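Worked Example 4.2. Consider the chain below.
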Amino acid sequence: MKKIECRFTGVLLPFERAKAVARILAEEENDLALLISWCDRDKGVHSPQCLQCEIKGEPGWEVYGRNHEGRLRISFDDDRFVFIYS
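Applying the procedure from the previous section yields the following structure tokens:
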């Protein structure tokens, strides 16, 4: 899986804006990119909510994304927000 890490200083990027930037990045390589899984650590939420998927301490949403054709992992500010796209 290809990984992109984005870091911002001087501004606290909100989740929805990070999601919009991630979509732009994902669509640069694939016009049909599909958001498979995501995590918002600020709010403590993620999708999908598949805790049974957890493997060796890796979060279930991330395992799900990787195992469901995730090809691109986009992280913002040290995994504050993470988006996995097909």
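Strands lie at 2-6, 35-40, 45-47, 72-76, 81-85. Helices lie at 15-29, 60-67. Compare this with Example 4.1 before moving on.
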